[in-house]
């Protein structure tokens, strides 16, 4: 990986205060994932029926939340029959080694003769006899989680008003008694809980927000540390009942043993488990795994509302093997599908930005309003002069460390990194921007994704170990380069300056006229007026600074 690529990877994280490469063994990663595993499925784009709006959103958000509370998450979208079956079969291997195994499914389901089925996106279901061959029985889902040792839980947001059911019931000779409305009540094995978005025989609402009422409530309560699963589902029920005016009542089937089973651990419980269940090195390794996942989460949150392909490709490239890379891949597939849905000749406005992670074409219509987010633009050989938060700068080893320090400091809006001196200068503002070899400038800004990033106006060129040949306007009494620079900037005659730090007197020399020539001179720092517009070579998402 090149230094430039490493810089991009680390900057988008913005929470790291030191850029230390984390080396995590496969065994440690597996130990972390053995505890809590989840399979999240969102089926939205049905081939033979109208697409559902919420399942992709529901699955994206559920996968992110489960990952945040320590689950190893496998997330899948728009699965056909074979893909759905294979996903459950593969997940069985993870669940067999886990303490807690969870499956979340959002999409269509159907009940026939007391048996519940999940409907893949390629199902046609022209008659009742096809259900058993084109849909997957819920029993396969229960089998997939059955190997977990402590808690087995299935969340089904699949009780929607089903177009497949309407079509089947409209067929001549269809048995209305065999086809139920919603899903049928079930009796899972002890220690297994199945939560329906709506109780047996009733349907669930998609709602009018990003998430369905059931998933919205589940996302709210599943993250509460130490909340017992039974109480969590009661809270979900109450919220959905309130949200739907009593029209939809989630229902829990199954029973749990008399122990406190939670989806999200308290900090105390996690610390105790690490203390009693594993050695210090293993615990540290697992913390490193979580640290990497947390960095991926921060990057995902910065672009989670984006439909920009380049944003998603950046997540995939920087965080392979994480749930966030899977979410980004799914978003790319959705973007591709949406692009293919445009009719030939359809008018589409393209917003093009400068080369880098921020650029690309984004489809927009005039009436769309876009949310503003924070980004960091990076400029090659640009020094932001003035506005330092720390006079002498900070000793760091790389530009990515400097960017991370600025990103984690709310007062820092730009920075300059001097690679030769390995000094990081954090800045709350700046007076002028100057071109300087061997430095990197970073600038944090808030904008809409289609807006172009800032173009920096260069007013000066800084030269180290160089003396400018021009008309001498005379020496000054300035004893520092900053004072000398300020003196020249305030004098319209001054087109350049040279500052000899080692001289006992006459350190600062102001120059006039043509200042295009210079000679090598050790210990001399010079600057001359310049006029140039510089665009960033890279723009990446950043944490908010407001």
Automatic annotation (TrEMBL):
Residues covered by the Caspase family p20 domain: 34-163
Gene3D superfamilies: 3.40.50.1460, Hepatocyte Growth Factor
Keyword field: Disulfide bond, Repeat
InterPro entries: Apple (IPR000177), Caspase-like_dom_sf (IPR029030), Caspase-related_regulators (IPR052039), Pan_app (IPR003609), Pept_C14_caspase (IPR011600), Pept_C14_p20 (IPR001309)
Pfam families cross-referenced by the UniProt entry: PAN_1, PAN_4, Peptidase_C14
Span list, region Disordered: 266-289
Protein name: Caspase family protein
